[in-house]
Amino acid sequence: FTWFLQYQEFRPWLRNDFIFKLLGYAKEYDACLKILHNLSTSTIREKKKYLKNNTNKTAVHQEEDALGKKKRLAFLDLLLEYAEDNPEFTEEEIRKEVDTFMFAGHDTTASAVNW
């Protein structure tokens, strides 16, 4: 996925959607994007299932680390907790937030390794 963004960066004519599709890059791009969305969606659903099946939700949120401090909730846990209290916050919006953080983390790590 990152390859497409870098490829378009140095080829401005590929930033035009029509040309991008005409040259056949859009199909592969869409396939990569679908894989990323499926990964995010499955991660969200697994976490929801875990939280739903956990009989003692407060224990999950009040776990302590080795020093006796409360563990901080993961970003996904915070999003799911917010969505539970605010039904207008949809799973699609959660997925978009998760995609943003997953891509940002991947891109930062990839850039550091390449440097």
* Shape assignment: elongated
- Overall structural class, as computed from helix and strand content, comes to mainly alpha
- Mean pLDDT, all residues: 80
Distance between the termini: 19 Å
Throw out a few tags for this protein.
mainly alpha; 6 helices; 115 residues
Task: Kindly describe this structure.
The protein has helices at 2-9, 17-22, 25-53, 57-61, 75-85, 91-114. By secondary structure, it is mainly α. It has one domain (29-114). The chain is elongated and about 55 Å long.
Question: Helices and strands in order, then pairings?
Answer:
Blueprint: H1 2-9, H2 17-22, H3 25-53, H4 57-61, H5 75-85, H6 91-114
Summarize the structure.
The protein is mainly α and 115 residues long. The chain is built from six helices and no strands.
